[in-house]
Amino acid sequence: MRHIVLVGNMKAGKKGDTIVTYALGTSLGLIAWDPAAQVGGLLHAMLPLSRSDPQKAEANPCIFVDTGVPKLFKEVCDMGAQKSRLILKAVGCSRPVGENEMFKIGERNYSVLKKILWKNNVLLESEDVGGTANRTVQFDLTTGQITVSS
Hints:
Elements: E1 2-5, E2 9-14, E3 18-24, E4 28-34, E5 39-45, H1 54-59, H2 65-78, E6 87-92, H3 105-119, E7 126-129, E8 135-140, E9 146-149
Parallel strand pairs: 1-3, 6-7
Antiparallel strand pairs: 2-5, 3-8, 4-5, 4-6, 8-9
């Protein structure tokens, strides 16, 4: 089954599913996959820190990196994944042309992700972050293959 993840959302799935998200600019796309359990998920988080809008974070934690990443981990682990087997890949966190340098949302999203992973003793296997391009991600949960296009 094919699932589309919109901005500020997340989807977890199992073998046979494909998860796609579009227009990853400054947003973080985080893919988590457990090849043994053949489950995984994809998060499309817009903003780094939930403290900027606690009410919005409570209503939808996936909007923020600091609340969306733990939610993604919990969802895939509830489906049978194990943290020690997770393969993590990050996409997005760009700086689109013309973006106000003062905010640096993409850089901040990536920085918050790295801090969360470090605190949880988890590493990224790969990343396609930064630059100025928007990216589309397609994640095949049967094979774990990720296709990124700009």
